[in-house]
Amino acid sequence: MIYRTYGKTGKQISAIGFGGMRFPEPKEIEKSAELVLHAHAKGITYFDTAPLYSEEKSEEIFGHAFKQLPRDSFYVSTKCMEADGKKFRRSLETSLKRLGLERIDFFNVWGLLSREQWEDRKRGGVLKALLNARDEGLIEHVVFSTHMTGEEADDVFDEEIFEGVTLGYNAINFPFREQVVDSAGRHGIGVVTMNPLGGGLIPKNAERFNFIRSADDPDVVSAALRFNLSHPAITCALVGFSSRQEVDEAVAAVERFTPLSPERIAEIKGKVETEFEGLCTGCGYCLPCPEGLPIPQLMDTYNMRILQGPEDQIVVNRLKFHWGLTPDAAATCVHCGACEKACTQHLPIMERLDQIAEIGPRTAGQKE
Predict the structure, then answer these.
(1) Which residue positions in the chain have pLDDT lower than 70?
(2) H/E element holding 37?
(3) Rounded CA gap, 91 and 97, in Å?
(4) Where are the beta strands (DSSP E) in 223-350?
(5) 164 and 16: one domain?
(6) Distance between CA 344 and CA 13 in Å, rounded?
(7) Residue 152 near residue 114, CB atoms below 8 Å
């Protein structure tokens, strides 16, 4: 295992982290905890969880494993999305109890989708509750998870409140995310990446993503992790493990890790547009939309429809939980065609927007 310094904290964490949202049998607490212990034995020291992960059992699973480990041998990250300061505090206390810890190393303000949402949470007392908890020693480092654009994230970084950021970054979405990662690096902020394997989509679609493999990459999983960790600002890549074999494969990929050369990275980026075969790369050339539609976010959602299946709920969930949107966000397209003229991949954007908009009436009133 290789270890990297998390921003300005001085803490050395494993370059591969354990993302605790994909335990195959979360109700089997002891069995699931054995997977955590195996990862720790293989050199993984950064463990990321959240109250809702794995049928709300993830924190409990980690807690069961942590009581069998020396406290100075691991770091834990968890999250809270409450917008009210008092509820935020109660959620933190519940997480501490489930984890069986007196202190959480990295505590995320969870799922900031926009700068406006962060301002709303500050008005609700979240920042005060967060800093009070840090002063009391319940939290050591204040971080946040986000799907913000680069400019919005810049504003948050400039506040100098947060020491780290957790965000999605992989071979599917890096054109959209790279500005945030670069900005975090300039600010000296630690970067932990979620979904370096695209939430499992990259290995499930290995042939489609084979272009990211270099001659010395044994498989597309190793290539995806190598691509992720070759960015100098990225501290740790989280993998949602569900078996010992997956742990072993990820650890092996890092043990033989050598960063990609700038020339190879440029080559991969250059191939994205030609190799993605109908997937949006999130380059943003379609903006600004005259009607204000968030086209890259909507097209990212359509990517999931291509890769995961045509079910409406896939689109609804991606929009809601990843972007804070509904299918109605696509409904105001006036078919001016400006986005398609600017699209470097010549995607049928208007047609895809119509398909997303049609999901709204079909799913109206359904429980998500």
Answers:
(1) 272-277, 283, 344, 364-368
(2) helix 29-41
(3) 10
(4) 236-239
(5) yes
(6) 39
(7) yes
